Amino acid sequence: MTSKKLQGLKVAILVADGFEQVELTKPRQALDDAGAATRIVSPAKGQVRGWNHHDPADAFDVDVALDKARADDFDALLLPGGVVNPDALRIDEKAVAFVRAFVDAGKPVAAICHGPWTLIEAGGVKGRRMTSWPSLKSDLSNAGAKWVDESVVVDGPLVTSRKPDDIPAFNREVGKLFAQALQPAAAH
Which positions are catalytic? Predict the structure, then answer.
């Protein structure tokens, strides 16, 4: 991402305990480096813990408690994967409502690995061309998405990716898509 091209962009990063740590840290760093203001939103109190595959990793401060978070306060949404994180979020009514608010408003959403699970619950995948961790293929297809096995897919306001190895391509497309969220504000 080019220097400061996302200046002024407010990005929510929605996670519960058990997110794949690199799927939060690498995209967040790219967004921050490009000038975006990223905030971790979580149902967890105080801190949320990442994972490195199957092993617990670092704890991160929660910037905004989910029960106080409003999609209107953000321009874009990042949904890291891991298995435990999106599995917990997709059964959390407040998390699903938060994601649905981004989908309904047409705001850009980026999801990697298992992150699209929460998008399914929020009604955000029907008719979309998407990718994910391969085990979500049936879930996404059953929810009306067209699943493809590609490193990164952009369809309208949605960018999806498969796994940590795809993060460089994911970050590139997230930067392009999220930059579009600033254009209407700049045009006025």
Answer: 114
